[in-house]
Amino acid sequence: MAxxxxxxxxxxxxxxxxxxxxxAQRARGISSGAALTVERDNDKNPVVALRxxxxxxxxxxxxxxxxxxxxxxxxxxxxxxxxxxxxxxAMQQEMTLQMAQASQxxxxxxxxxxxxxxxxxxxxxxxxxxxxxxxxxxxxxxxAADAAGVVGAEEAEE
Length: 158
Fold this sequence. Notes:
The protein is mainly α. It is built from 7 helices and no strands. The protein folds into 2 domains: about 70 residues, Eukaryotic RPB6 RNA polymerase subunit (Alpha-Beta Complex); about 70 residues, no CATH class.
């Protein structure tokens, strides 16, 4: 083939815009050291790329994928991202349980009876000021104390 014409390449890549983009990407690949599939014949890289497309010695689909990857700013993975779902019912059940335990502890403190505490529960009398409650337990205890009227008594003392 002495001269590459668009008509030779259009048979392989029907869209002229796609043809130009694919040929330019292949020419960039040749410039960066990709192996030639046709003889150079003292031609420049764009002409060699067009000759390769016309003779179908390169896979245009692979070149097109390479072009798309090179132009992408945000690369998306093929696998969907694993999103953690929040089980609201389980969280509500846990909060209810913590509030019930806090309410039981507050009632025991008011009555002065430590015998009703189950194994694993912390007696509020054993907990010093250097061990503040954190997280959901703190919120649950504040809610239980409000319900028992303990907070109102503390405010009255101040």
